[in-house]
Amino acid sequence: MRTLVREHRIHLGQLVAPLFVAERSSDAGPIAAMPGIERFDLNGAVAEARELFGLGIKSVLLFGIPAEKDASASSSHAQDGIVQRTIGAIKAALPEMLVMADLCCCEYTAHGHCGILDGRGDVDNDATVSLLCRIAVSYAQAGVDVVAPSDMMDGRVAAIRASLDGCDATHVAILAYSAKYASAFYGPFRDAAGSAPQFGDRRGYQMDPSNAREALREIALDIEQGADIVMVKPGLPYLDVLRAARDRFDVPLAVYNVSGEYAMLQAAIANGWLDGATAIDELLTCFVRAGADIVITYFAKEYARRHG
Ligand code: PBG
After folding, report:
1. Known catalytic residue: 180?
2. Alpha helices for 94-182 (secondary structure H)
3. How many CA atoms lie within 13 A of 273 on its CB side?
4. Rounded (5°) CA angle 46-51-53
Protein backbone atom coordinates (compact mmCIF):
# COMPACT_ATOMS: atom_id res chain seq x y z
CA MET A 1 0.00 0.00 0.00
CA ARG A 2 2.78 2.43 0.89
CA THR A 3 4.48 1.72 -2.43
CA LEU A 4 1.24 2.34 -4.27
CA VAL A 5 0.59 5.74 -2.68
CA ARG A 6 4.20 6.94 -2.54
CA GLU A 7 4.51 10.51 -3.86
CA HIS A 8 8.22 10.68 -4.65
CA ARG A 9 10.79 8.19 -5.85
CA ILE A 10 14.42 8.49 -6.75
CA HIS A 11 15.44 7.28 -10.17
CA LEU A 12 19.12 6.51 -10.75
CA GLY A 13 18.90 8.70 -13.85
CA GLN A 14 18.50 11.73 -11.57
CA LEU A 15 21.77 11.20 -9.72
CA VAL A 16 25.09 12.76 -10.67
CA ALA A 17 28.37 11.52 -9.21
CA PRO A 18 31.14 14.10 -8.66
CA LEU A 19 34.61 12.84 -9.65
CA PHE A 20 37.93 14.35 -8.52
CA VAL A 21 40.70 13.84 -11.05
CA ALA A 22 44.33 14.58 -10.23
CA GLU A 23 46.89 15.40 -12.89
CA ARG A 24 49.70 13.87 -10.81
CA SER A 25 49.15 10.24 -9.81
CA SER A 26 50.88 11.06 -6.51
CA ASP A 27 47.90 13.32 -5.66
CA ALA A 28 45.44 10.45 -6.10
CA GLY A 29 44.10 8.60 -3.06
CA PRO A 30 41.49 8.73 -0.32
CA ILE A 31 40.08 11.96 1.12
CA ALA A 32 40.21 11.97 4.91
CA ALA A 33 36.95 13.83 5.58
CA MET A 34 35.05 12.00 2.83
CA PRO A 35 35.27 8.28 3.55
CA GLY A 36 34.49 6.25 0.43
CA ILE A 37 35.43 9.08 -1.95
CA GLU A 38 38.78 9.27 -3.71
CA ARG A 39 40.89 11.48 -5.89
CA PHE A 40 41.57 9.48 -9.04
CA ASP A 41 44.26 9.78 -11.66
CA LEU A 42 43.12 9.79 -15.28
CA ASN A 43 42.94 6.01 -15.66
CA GLY A 44 41.31 5.64 -12.27
CA ALA A 45 38.65 8.19 -13.23
CA VAL A 46 37.80 6.29 -16.40
CA ALA A 47 37.58 3.02 -14.44
CA GLU A 48 35.33 4.69 -11.85
CA ALA A 49 33.11 6.13 -14.59
CA ARG A 50 32.82 2.66 -16.10
CA GLU A 51 31.81 1.18 -12.76
CA LEU A 52 29.26 3.96 -12.15
CA PHE A 53 27.78 3.48 -15.60
CA GLY A 54 27.44 -0.25 -14.97
CA LEU A 55 25.59 0.53 -11.75
CA GLY A 56 23.17 2.86 -13.55
CA ILE A 57 24.73 6.27 -12.74
CA LYS A 58 25.00 7.87 -16.16
CA SER A 59 26.17 11.39 -15.33
CA VAL A 60 29.43 12.52 -13.77
CA LEU A 61 30.65 15.97 -12.75
CA LEU A 62 34.42 16.44 -13.09
CA PHE A 63 36.69 18.47 -10.82
CA GLY A 64 40.36 18.84 -11.70
CA ILE A 65 43.35 18.87 -9.39
CA PRO A 66 46.13 20.31 -11.55
CA ALA A 67 49.87 19.83 -11.05
CA GLU A 68 50.52 23.59 -11.31
CA LYS A 69 48.64 26.60 -9.97
CA ASP A 70 49.38 30.27 -10.70
CA ALA A 71 47.78 33.70 -10.32
CA SER A 72 46.03 33.52 -13.69
CA ALA A 73 44.81 29.89 -13.47
CA SER A 74 46.57 29.10 -16.74
CA SER A 75 46.32 25.32 -16.37
CA SER A 76 42.51 25.64 -16.31
CA HIS A 77 42.15 26.13 -20.07
CA ALA A 78 45.10 24.07 -21.36
CA GLN A 79 43.93 21.72 -24.07
CA ASP A 80 45.97 18.97 -22.40
CA GLY A 81 44.74 19.98 -18.94
CA ILE A 82 43.59 17.25 -16.61
CA VAL A 83 39.87 17.92 -16.97
CA GLN A 84 40.11 18.28 -20.74
CA ARG A 85 41.97 14.95 -21.03
CA THR A 86 39.53 13.22 -18.69
CA ILE A 87 36.53 14.45 -20.69
CA GLY A 88 38.04 12.97 -23.85
CA ALA A 89 38.98 9.69 -22.17
CA ILE A 90 35.55 9.12 -20.57
CA LYS A 91 33.64 10.03 -23.74
CA ALA A 92 35.89 7.67 -25.75
CA ALA A 93 35.38 4.80 -23.30
CA LEU A 94 31.69 5.46 -22.57
CA PRO A 95 30.03 7.55 -25.27
CA GLU A 96 26.66 7.32 -23.48
CA MET A 97 27.98 8.73 -20.20
CA LEU A 98 26.87 12.35 -19.74
CA VAL A 99 30.03 14.24 -18.87
CA MET A 100 29.69 17.50 -16.98
CA ALA A 101 32.66 19.63 -15.94
CA ASP A 102 32.75 22.12 -13.11
CA LEU A 103 33.78 25.51 -14.45
CA CYS A 104 35.72 27.55 -11.90
CA CYS A 105 39.22 28.87 -11.32
CA CYS A 106 39.65 28.09 -7.62
CA GLU A 107 41.41 24.77 -8.17
CA TYR A 108 43.84 26.48 -10.58
CA THR A 109 44.69 29.76 -8.85
CA ALA A 110 47.58 29.80 -6.39
CA HIS A 111 45.57 32.11 -4.11
CA GLY A 112 42.53 29.78 -4.19
CA HIS A 113 39.94 32.40 -5.13
CA CYS A 114 37.36 31.68 -7.83
CA GLY A 115 38.70 34.34 -10.18
CA ILE A 116 41.42 36.74 -11.23
CA LEU A 117 42.34 39.30 -8.58
CA ASP A 118 42.43 43.05 -9.17
CA GLY A 119 45.02 45.36 -7.62
CA ARG A 120 43.12 45.49 -4.30
CA GLY A 121 42.98 41.74 -3.78
CA ASP A 122 39.31 41.53 -4.78
CA VAL A 123 38.08 39.22 -7.51
CA ASP A 124 37.76 41.09 -10.82
CA ASN A 125 34.33 40.00 -12.08
CA ASP A 126 34.72 40.80 -15.77
CA ALA A 127 38.28 39.55 -16.18
CA THR A 128 37.14 36.32 -14.55
CA VAL A 129 34.17 35.99 -16.91
CA SER A 130 36.54 36.15 -19.91
CA LEU A 131 38.68 33.42 -18.38
CA LEU A 132 35.61 31.26 -17.70
CA CYS A 133 34.63 31.56 -21.37
CA ARG A 134 38.06 30.36 -22.36
CA ILE A 135 37.81 27.35 -20.04
CA ALA A 136 34.29 26.57 -21.33
CA VAL A 137 35.53 26.56 -24.94
CA SER A 138 38.42 24.24 -24.03
CA TYR A 139 35.97 21.83 -22.35
CA ALA A 140 33.70 21.97 -25.41
CA GLN A 141 36.63 21.19 -27.68
CA ALA A 142 37.44 18.21 -25.46
CA GLY A 143 33.90 16.90 -25.96
CA VAL A 144 32.08 17.87 -22.77
CA ASP A 145 28.27 17.60 -22.68
CA VAL A 146 27.56 20.12 -19.92
CA VAL A 147 29.59 22.96 -18.40
CA ALA A 148 28.75 23.87 -14.82
CA PRO A 149 29.94 27.36 -13.80
CA SER A 150 30.36 27.42 -10.00
CA ASP A 151 32.21 30.74 -9.67
CA MET A 152 29.21 33.04 -9.03
CA MET A 153 30.50 35.92 -11.19
CA ASP A 154 27.79 38.22 -12.55
CA GLY A 155 26.94 37.88 -16.22
CA ARG A 156 28.89 34.70 -16.77
CA VAL A 157 26.07 32.57 -18.12
CA ALA A 158 25.33 34.90 -21.07
CA ALA A 159 29.04 35.25 -21.85
CA ILE A 160 29.69 31.50 -21.69
CA ARG A 161 26.64 30.82 -23.88
CA ALA A 162 27.89 33.29 -26.50
CA SER A 163 31.40 31.81 -26.44
CA LEU A 164 30.09 28.26 -26.82
CA ASP A 165 27.78 29.26 -29.65
CA GLY A 166 30.67 31.09 -31.33
CA CYS A 167 32.84 27.96 -31.42
CA ASP A 168 30.31 25.57 -32.85
CA ALA A 169 29.31 24.22 -29.46
CA THR A 170 25.62 25.10 -29.45
CA HIS A 171 24.95 21.55 -28.22
CA VAL A 172 26.86 22.04 -24.96
CA ALA A 173 24.42 22.77 -22.12
CA ILE A 174 24.95 25.06 -19.13
CA LEU A 175 24.17 23.89 -15.62
CA ALA A 176 24.50 27.09 -13.60
CA TYR A 177 25.37 27.05 -9.92
CA SER A 178 22.86 29.91 -9.59
CA ALA A 179 22.12 30.07 -5.89
CA LYS A 180 25.46 29.11 -4.40
CA TYR A 181 25.91 30.17 -0.80
CA ALA A 182 29.12 31.14 0.99
CA SER A 183 28.90 27.98 3.08
CA ALA A 184 30.99 26.25 5.73
CA PHE A 185 29.82 22.96 4.24
CA TYR A 186 32.39 23.06 1.41
CA GLY A 187 35.28 22.41 3.83
CA PRO A 188 36.01 18.76 2.91
CA PHE A 189 35.82 19.57 -0.82
CA ARG A 190 38.39 22.34 -0.42
CA ASP A 191 40.73 19.93 1.36
CA ALA A 192 40.18 17.38 -1.40
CA ALA A 193 40.73 19.87 -4.21
CA GLY A 194 43.34 22.00 -2.44
CA SER A 195 41.18 25.03 -3.25
CA ALA A 196 40.73 26.86 0.06
CA PRO A 197 41.28 30.61 -0.36
CA GLN A 198 44.73 31.58 0.94
CA PHE A 199 43.32 34.83 2.38
CA GLY A 200 39.85 36.20 3.00
CA ASP A 201 36.74 34.24 2.07
CA ARG A 202 34.25 33.87 -0.77
CA ARG A 203 31.56 36.17 0.60
CA GLY A 204 32.25 38.76 -2.10
CA TYR A 205 30.86 36.48 -4.79
CA GLN A 206 28.94 33.66 -3.07
CA MET A 207 25.60 34.32 -1.38
CA ASP A 208 24.81 35.24 2.22
CA PRO A 209 23.16 32.23 3.94
CA SER A 210 20.59 34.64 5.41
CA ASN A 211 19.10 35.48 2.01
CA ALA A 212 16.41 33.47 0.26
CA ARG A 213 14.70 36.03 -2.02
CA GLU A 214 18.07 36.95 -3.45
CA ALA A 215 18.50 33.32 -4.52
CA LEU A 216 15.38 33.59 -6.67
CA ARG A 217 16.74 36.74 -8.27
CA GLU A 218 20.05 35.01 -9.03
CA ILE A 219 18.22 32.05 -10.57
CA ALA A 220 15.97 34.31 -12.68
CA LEU A 221 19.05 36.14 -14.02
CA ASP A 222 20.76 32.89 -14.98
CA ILE A 223 17.65 31.61 -16.77
CA GLU A 224 17.35 34.89 -18.68
CA GLN A 225 20.98 34.56 -19.71
CA GLY A 226 20.48 31.07 -21.10
CA ALA A 227 21.08 28.56 -18.31
CA ASP A 228 19.58 25.19 -19.23
CA ILE A 229 19.61 23.84 -15.69
CA VAL A 230 19.84 25.88 -12.47
CA MET A 231 21.16 24.78 -9.09
CA VAL A 232 20.76 25.43 -5.40
CA LYS A 233 23.83 24.64 -3.28
CA PRO A 234 24.33 23.37 -0.57
CA GLY A 235 21.30 21.09 -0.30
CA LEU A 236 20.31 20.02 3.18
CA PRO A 237 20.41 23.42 4.91
CA TYR A 238 18.68 25.09 1.92
CA LEU A 239 15.64 22.91 1.21
CA ASP A 240 13.41 25.98 1.61
CA VAL A 241 15.29 27.72 -1.19
CA LEU A 242 15.00 24.61 -3.34
CA ARG A 243 11.23 24.48 -2.78
CA ALA A 244 10.84 28.19 -3.54
CA ALA A 245 12.83 27.78 -6.75
CA ARG A 246 10.72 24.78 -7.79
CA ASP A 247 7.50 26.74 -7.24
CA ARG A 248 8.74 29.75 -9.21
CA PHE A 249 10.65 28.28 -12.17
CA ASP A 250 9.94 25.55 -14.70
CA VAL A 251 13.46 24.80 -15.90
CA PRO A 252 15.25 21.65 -14.68
CA LEU A 253 16.40 22.18 -11.11
CA ALA A 254 19.48 20.62 -9.53
CA VAL A 255 20.65 20.46 -5.94
CA TYR A 256 24.22 19.83 -4.76
CA ASN A 257 24.42 17.59 -1.71
CA VAL A 258 27.86 18.97 -0.82
CA SER A 259 30.97 17.55 0.80
CA GLY A 260 30.20 18.79 4.32
CA GLU A 261 26.78 17.19 4.24
CA TYR A 262 28.40 13.94 3.12
CA ALA A 263 31.09 14.17 5.82
CA MET A 264 28.54 14.90 8.54
CA LEU A 265 26.44 11.86 7.69
CA GLN A 266 29.41 9.54 7.18
CA ALA A 267 30.89 10.56 10.53
CA ALA A 268 27.65 9.73 12.32
CA ILE A 269 27.28 6.45 10.41
CA ALA A 270 30.88 5.45 11.22
CA ASN A 271 30.19 6.04 14.91
CA GLY A 272 27.08 3.91 14.78
CA TRP A 273 24.93 6.97 15.61
CA LEU A 274 22.84 6.72 12.44
CA ASP A 275 21.76 3.78 10.34
CA GLY A 276 23.54 4.39 7.03
CA ALA A 277 21.20 2.95 4.44
CA THR A 278 18.02 4.45 5.87
CA ALA A 279 19.59 7.85 6.55
CA ILE A 280 21.04 8.11 3.03
CA ASP A 281 17.81 7.04 1.36
CA GLU A 282 15.81 9.50 3.45
CA LEU A 283 18.23 12.32 2.67
CA LEU A 284 18.14 11.78 -1.10
CA THR A 285 14.35 11.39 -1.10
CA CYS A 286 13.99 14.73 0.73
CA PHE A 287 15.83 16.52 -2.09
CA VAL A 288 13.40 15.09 -4.62
CA ARG A 289 10.41 15.90 -2.40
CA ALA A 290 11.64 19.48 -2.04
CA GLY A 291 11.65 19.83 -5.82
CA ALA A 292 15.00 18.73 -7.24
CA ASP A 293 14.98 17.01 -10.63
CA ILE A 294 18.71 16.33 -10.40
CA VAL A 295 20.71 15.44 -7.28
CA ILE A 296 24.49 15.79 -7.36
CA THR A 297 25.71 13.60 -4.55
CA TYR A 298 28.78 11.72 -3.29
CA PHE A 299 26.31 9.01 -2.23
CA ALA A 300 25.40 8.22 -5.87
CA LYS A 301 27.48 5.04 -6.13
CA GLU A 302 26.48 3.73 -2.72
CA TYR A 303 22.81 4.38 -3.48
CA ALA A 304 23.06 2.71 -6.90
CA ARG A 305 24.70 -0.36 -5.36
CA ARG A 306 21.73 -0.90 -3.08
CA HIS A 307 18.97 0.08 -5.52
CA GLY A 308 20.30 -0.90 -8.95
C1 PBG B 1 34.34 25.47 -6.90
C2 PBG B 1 33.41 24.54 -6.19
C3 PBG B 1 33.27 24.29 -4.81
C4 PBG B 1 32.33 23.26 -4.70
C5 PBG B 1 31.91 22.94 -5.97
N6 PBG B 1 32.57 23.75 -6.88
C7 PBG B 1 34.00 24.85 -3.65
C8 PBG B 1 33.86 26.26 -3.25
O9 PBG B 1 33.07 27.04 -3.81
O10 PBG B 1 34.62 26.63 -2.36
C11 PBG B 1 31.91 22.61 -3.40
C12 PBG B 1 31.40 21.21 -3.53
C13 PBG B 1 31.32 20.46 -2.25
O14 PBG B 1 31.55 20.97 -1.14
O15 PBG B 1 31.01 19.26 -2.34
N16 PBG B 1 34.06 26.82 -6.76
Report:
1. yes
2. 125-142, 156-166
3. 7
4. 90
How far apart, in Å, do the first and last CA atoms of the chain sit? Answer: 22
What is the tens place of the pLDDT at every residue in 211-237?
999 999 999 999 999 999 999 999 999
- In one-letter notation, the amino acid at residue 90 is I
- Cβ–ligand 1 contact at 102 (below 6 Å): yes
Ligand 1 pocket residue status of 297, Cβ below 6 Å: no
Does the annotation mark 69 as catalytic?
no
Residue 56 backbone phi and psi in degrees, to 5: 105, 5
Does residue 292 line the site of ligand 1, with CB under 6 A? Answer: no
Give the span between the Cα atoms of 114 and 128, in whole angstroms: 8
Atom 14, ligand 1: which residue's CA is nearest? 186
Tell me the CA–centroid distance for residue 187 and ligand 1, in Å: 9
Which CATH code fits 12-307?
3.20.20.70
pTM value is 0.97
Q: Which atom of ligand 1 is nearest to the CA of 185?
A: 14
Q: Is 195 exposed, middle or buried (0-12, 13-18, 19+ CB in 10 A)?
A: buried
The residues pairing with 257 across neighbouring beta strands, listed in sequence order, are: 297
What whole-number distance in Å separates Cα of residue 216 and Cα of residue 234?
15
Q: Count of CB atoms within 10 A of residue 210's CB?
A: 7
Residues in the chain predicted with pLDDT less than 50, given as ranges, are none
Indicate the domain borders of the chain.
Answer: 12-307
Q: Which residues contact 241 (CB under 8 A, 6 or more apart)?
A: 179, 212, 215, 232
